[in-house]
Amino acid sequence: EVQLVESGGGLVQAGGSLRLSCAASGFTFGDYAIGWFRQAPGQEREGISCISSIDGTTYYAESMKGRFAISSDNAKNTVYLQMNSLEPEDTAVYYCAAINPYSGYPCFDVRGPLYEFDYWGQGTQVTVSS
Fold first, then answer.
1. Rounded distance between C-alpha atoms, residue 93 and residue 51, angstroms
2. Tens digits of per-residue pLDDT, 77-124?
3. Helix (H/G/I), strand (E/B), else coil: 27
4. Three-class SS state of 74
């Protein structure tokens, strides 16, 4: 059973930083892509970024470039999202999600995810105070 567990959310002041973690386990197939998404109250879910486990290639939605950085530690099956210069508008529940199996195609383009992600975590709340 695939499990994705997010951690690292919390309350931070505007201008601060947070690093979210997504611990993944149970993949049936070896290669996967993991993405980060967020959803603010009353708003649609939006994609932030994704990363390939095959070669570490990263993809970002255009609107998320600059302040967000995705990375991974394959030995730990963990993907991170570094968030800097946070703004109150970044307040949302942040989710990680996975595509598995995955053969290395781009998982995002500049507009966001290109495909449906197969598995989702429960989310972690990020609140940015002004």
1. 20
2. 999 999 999 999 999 999 999 999 999 999 999 999 999 999 999 999
3. coil
4. helix
